[in-house]
Structure formats: structure tokens, C-alpha cells
Amino acid sequence: MRGGGRAVSVIIAVTDPLDPRIAPFREVRDRDIVGRRGGFIAEGEVVLNVLARSRLHRARALLISQARIERLSALIGAFPSDLPVYSAGQGVMDAIVGFPIHRGVLAVGRRAAGPSAEALLASSPPRAVVLALFGVSNHDNMGGIFRNAAAFGVHGVLLDGACCDPLYRKAIRVSVGAALTVPFAKLAPGEDAIDLLTRHGFSALALTPSATASLAQLAPPKRAAVLLGAEGPGLPAAVLGRARAIAIPMAGAFDSLNVATTSGIVLHHLAMARREDAPGGGGSPDRA
């Protein structure tokens, strides 16, 4: 088989769901819950295209429905030619993963060794935006936040210990692969996020409906850290009390937004402000 004008992996046919060669793909949902020891599952053509180009993470193997092999030859060709590519009929594939896998396109990936929170902030350019998440445990929200982070040029994301894994299969899918391209780091137990951000010159902007300062009047600092908490409880009091509180104006008495939606509004505001501040104005916002 050839793709993109070069030889690509030999397709390995699988007819037995218990074939040991495809063990990493077996019972996807159950194994996602308990963790994959340095691995992750990526699902869907769009996400695999991102994985093929990712500078952070690498694929270990592909599993693709027989019916889609020819149409996806270019995608397969985007991966290294020595990457194992398995193919199975739809029934066998469903039995392997443990549920009807309609997209018919999966990869097992290997996580890159992520930076420390200190290293991630230290690598930020002079003008940068980072996100700091506290208690965001919903995978849909996590994926949406990473999608927005990629769209608006966020340099990286900090996660406290209560956040869910951005490389959980559903989070990657909702992020349309952005979780594979935006760097993130977990705060160490007991690590003081506000102190860390301050030492690296970041102004902490805490999003909360109780704030009196409005996002509309915010003049973005050169280095901004957008702090977001879980829906309901919001940001921890110890964090909120040491940051600049910002609210998004809403109609009437309504004061609730989905946390992923909030991230998109705030990051768009910061990106547009950076564009206006750029020499000549109206240029593209800095890409961190």
C-alpha cells in the first residue's frame, strides 16, 4: 500500500478479538477509567490527523475498520512507515473495543513526559496567556477548554490535582485533537499556583460571577493567567482571594455559564486585545 507517494505500513488483518497483538485496544471504556500507564486512546479521523502532526505525543499503533482502509490511505501514510496498522471487520472491531465503534478509526498513543508547572511557565514568551484549571473534572468541559486554548494561542494549561485527564479518550475527541497539541502540566501536591504564576510574571485573572470588575473593561496584562474552576463550586476561596476577580456581564439576573464557554469568551477577549495592541493594530494575535 502507498500513501502520499511513499511506502506506508503493511496492513495487518485481525480476525480474532482476542488476538494478543491488539491487546491495547481491548475494552476501551473500562481501561480508560482505570488509566493506561502512560498511554491513551485517540479516536476519529480528525483526531488522528492531529496526532500524526503532534510534536508532543506519538502513536504506537492504529486500528482501522476494513471498510475505511483505502479511503484513509493518506492518513495512514502520515504516520511512520514502521507503525503497526491493524484492520478488522466491523463486528470484530466492535468486539475488540467493547462497544459499536462507528468511526472505525483508533490509535493507541504514547504520552510525552510532560513538563513541570515551573518549566511550562518558564518557557512562556514575553507576551503569553496560560490557563489554570481547578477541579475541572468533566471530560466534555476539559476537551472544550483545550479546543479554545488551541484556537486562541494559549501557551499552556496548568491543572490542579482534582482535574480530570486531558488525554482521556472523550476529552481528546471533544477537543478535536487540541489536547494532543497544547502543552499542559499538573501542579505538584501542595504547589502554590498563585505564587508560581506571580514569580513568572503572570497576572492571575479569576473568573467568577461575584466579581465587580467586568471582562469588557479588562486591559490585558502582557502575561495573563486565566483561572477557571469547576461549575458549581467555582474556584477555591484560597485561590480566588489572591487573584484579580473578573466577571462576564450577562443579561438580567442570570450569572451562569458553562466553564468551557467561559474560557472561549475570555480567551477571545484577550486575543482581540492583543491584536489591537500589536504594532499597526488589526494584526494577528501573538501565537504563544
Describe the 3D structure.
- The strands form three sheets. This protein has a six-stranded parallel beta sheet, sandwiched between helices. Strands 3-6-5-7-4 form a five-stranded mixed beta sheet.
- The chain is of the alpha/beta class and 288 residues long.
- Strand 1 and strand 2 form a beta hairpin.
- The protein has two domains: 2-110, Ribosomal protein L30/S12 (60s Ribosomal Protein L30, Chain: A), CATH 3.30.1330; 117-277, SPOUT methyltransferase, trefoil knot domain (Alpha/beta knot), CATH 3.40.1280.
- It is elongated, with a radius of gyration of 21 Å.
- It has ten helices and 13 strands.
Observed structural traits:
disordered N terminus, six-stranded parallel β-sheet, 10 helices, about 30% helix, alpha/beta, 60s Ribosomal Protein L30, Chain: A
